[in-house]
Each structure stands twice: as C-alpha cells, then as structure tokens.
Design a protein that fits this description.
The structure is a homodimer. By secondary structure, chain A is an all-alpha fold. Helix content of chain A is 71%, strand content 0%. The first copy, chain A, folds into two domains: 12-48, Arc Repressor Mutant, subunit A (Orthogonal Bundle), CATH 1.10.10; 55-194, Tetracycline Repressor, domain 2 (Orthogonal Bundle), CATH 1.10.357.
Chain lengths: 196, 196
Amino acid sequence: MARIRTGKDGSRKDVIVKAAAALFHEKGYKAASMRDLAESVGVEAASLYNHIRSKTELLHDICFNVANLFWEHISKVETSDAKPIEKLETLLRFHIRQMIENFQEVYISDREWRYLADPYLSNFQNQRRNYRKRFAVIIEQGIADGEINKIDASTAVLIVLHAVSGIESWHRSKHKISGEELEENMITILIDGLKK
Amino acid sequence: MARIRTGKDGSRKDVIVKAAAALFHEKGYKAASMRDLAESVGVEAASLYNHIRSKTELLHDICFNVANLFWEHISKVETSDAKPIEKLETLLRFHIRQMIENFQEVYISDREWRYLADPYLSNFQNQRRNYRKRFAVIIEQGIADGEINKIDASTAVLIVLHAVSGIESWHRSKHKISGEELEENMITILIDGLKK
C-alpha cells in the first residue's frame, strides 16, 4: 500500500489536511467523501484513519488553523506602536496575502464553517465575531485620532473583508494581474478610502 | 381555491416571481420546490401553472429582470455628461440601493444563475461579463483623465462589486445602521479609495 508522501516540514497529517482543503474547495464539504480524499492523497481510505478520525475533524482543523492564524496576527498588530491606519494596512495586507497564498484553507474556513458541530461551531462563531470586533476597535481608534473618515466601524469591517473575499474571482480569472499587483491595487482602494 | 392576491401595480406573475425570489433565497434554488412556492403564495400548486411553466422559468425571470435593470442603468450612465468618477458614484449607488431594496432578487441573480440552462446560461454569462467590461471602461476613462488612481480597472470592478455584495451580511445583522447610512459609508470608502 502506498505511503503518504510528506514534504520536508509537514507531518503526514498536514498533508492530509491540505489535500482535504483542496477537495472541500473543489466539491464542497458536504459532497466530498473520505474515499475522494484517499484517492487525492494516493492511499487506501483505511490508512487515512491512522492519522485522522473523521471528515469533521478535518473541517475542524482547517477552520481553526485559519482562525488561529488571524487571531495571532491581530494580537501582534494590536500591541505594536503603529498608528491605527498603519495597523489596518498591516491587517489588510495579511488578509490579502492569505487569500492569495493560502486560498483553499481560507475559503473553507470562510464558507464551510457552518458544518462544524457544537461546541466547535459556537467557539468558531465567537472567535470570528471577536476578531471582527477587534478589527472595528482599530478603525474606531483611527476615527478618534482623526486619521480615518467618520464611518460606522463595523460596516467598514464588513465592506473591506468582503472586498478582500473578491480575490476568489481573481483565482478563477484567466487573464490575471500578479498577486503583488492585486495586493497594491486593493490597498490603494481600501486604505485610501478609509483615510481622512 | 384561493386566488393569487396582487398589489396595485403587479400582475399575478409578478407576485409569483417575487415570492419565488424570497423562497430561493431562504432555501436555495435547488432545494426549493413548487409545492413550497404554492404554499408561500397561498394557492394550490396546480394553479401556479396557469401563470408559469416551471421553476427554471422563475429563475430565468429573476436573473434577467435584474441583469436588464443594471444593463439599462449603465446605458443611461454611459451617455450622461458626468465625469467618470461621478459616473462610478452613480453606478455604485445604484448597486448599493438594489442590494438594499431589491435584495432577494439581486442575491438570486448573483448566486443562483449557474442553475440556468443553455442558451440562457451563456446569454446571462455574456451579459454579466459585458456589464463588468463597461464598468471597467468607465474606470479606465477616469484613470486616463487623471481623476482616478492608477489601478487595474477589472480588479477595481471586482473589489468594489464584492464590497457591495457584503450588504448581504448587513441584512442578517441585528444591530444595523440605516440603509442611507450604509450607502454613505460605502461611497465614502469606495469612491474616496478610487479618487486620485
């Protein structure tokens, strides 16, 4: 039976989680089966179960890996000495780069989390809600400092995060600009739009 | 048997199409049945067929009603004497208001069009692609005039239209600002972000 090939840095489980993200993105979490996953990894379905217990566990890992990544990032940003508008730029660049380089995982975490089961589902929703609140607080600080246009902060979070999720179409488009150019274009529009 | 109640201006068919949009939004096009629709309109399923032939016909009507609305609007905007940046503001305000006031129809037309059958599917996709191109042309005119930041125009279209689609979350949120405030916030962020 074939063994699961791993890269230099990844464990076998990492390889499976990465393949699961690609598969869930292609077929949707609901429609994807463990048999599909085994095929994409190139092993028998039975040998997957040496590394993971269930499809739900894979979804859980993908969602929380992504959520924790953003959580750690915003924690660093919050404690930095930068001005609010610079903090926002750092946050946005991180979102954009994650959507470009870690697309399938971020997509699953953004779209398929509703298939998580409790208590994970509520934990995930809380973490997501809190992240957005912390993002809004930085915007509010910028408004208070007179650096950012007077807008409703939660609405601004909603607008910019949805704009970033548009990178999904960029992935699908045939004649596309480079990732760097995309990042600069988005920062130009969104950060200049927030600036007073 | 109950008759289909109509408003002052609407035909019976309009009432059915409107109810279909609400139902497709709630359940998804695939999962929604003609029986569900009959129930929501308050008539027997059989009597729906006096007005429409199939579920696909309803999807077709919703998608093309919305597409034609945007098509007519951009045609008027293109021939106006306004500057490109003003044209963009007019287009964006129209998108925003449609997402607020005509939400269910716009949502279906944006998300469920993939269930259309050919030749309607290809027609719809062409119309959508052409609309975005015409939108991009206006941005390019603004860049050429030095009014708009130098960015990739198709990417800018992608970014602003995705930002506007974020109004979906606004509809779901509990503590929400008014539609007018939402519109002004979005215009502030997006138009100021495009302006040079």
